[in-house]
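dude i think i finally got it to work??
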Amino acid sequence: MSGLAVVSAGLGQPSSTRLLADRLAAATTAALGRDLPVEHVELRDHAHAIVDAALTGFPSGPFRAAVEAVTGADGLIAVTPVFNATYSGLFKTFFDVLEPGALEGRPVLLGATGGTARHSLAIDHAMRPLFAYLRAAPVPTAVYAAPEDWGAGAAQSDLADRIARAGAELAALIEARPAAAKSDPYEDPVPFAELLAGGG
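look at this
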């Protein structure tokens, strides 16, 4: 899969986490100025499968398709609610079950939501180290949204500005990223007759 993968770890429906994820995706596609397939992965819908994958060591069923959408995307938006000053357990477990190196070099836009602006530091002290360990490439601007950011007035305008800036940064990294190499080494096999001719 190529395109944009959007991982949202909100627990409620509707959730401010998914709302922020949607707005970040819209800002990114607008900055690209072209159509880009967008695959939304709501971790809430895969909660049991995520735990199963953590226990068995591999994803299965619809959850496998979600993992492939994330690991095969040109860019990733990852948004989590903040609980107890860090990302949610569901968010962390999802990234724990990915294969090592699956996100290496992948452009990532980080976002988070929480009940107070004081939790905004979770992006820098928890999320950035996680994605550095995964060898992904987070954009400089991350976006945190507290309850007051969704209201009218200056806070809302500031949130819109941060979303637009972060989306533009992710779009720039996606455009600059070289095309992925073929993942299947057997996609273009050497014809058997050619092998015989060279083996004489």
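The chain is about 45% helix and 15% strand.
im so relieved honestly
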